[in-house]
Write a structure and sequence with these properties.
By secondary structure, the chain is mainly α. It contains two helices and no strands. It is 84% helix and 0% strand. Helix 1 crosses helix 2. It is elongated and about 60 Å long.
Length: 56
């Protein structure tokens, strides 16, 4: 088990620049998708609440 997270320089040294770049791109895509999903979820909740008010 790691005592601390490796720095970007250490990770680049361990896995190589190309794999480190791929990893960073995957992390960015995942974070973007998560943020989009969160926005859609929040919008759906707001829209659902408004629809309930209209129906009631």
């Amino acid at each position: 088990m790691l005592d601390r997270l490796p720095s970007a320089e250490e990770m680049t040294f361990l896995v190589g620049q190309s794999l480190h770049d791929v990893w960073n791109k995957l992390c960015t895509l995942y974070n973007s998708a998560t943020e989009i999903k969160k926005c859609f979820s929040e919008s759906f909740i707001i829209h659902s609440d408004r629809m309930k008010e209209v129906i009631d």
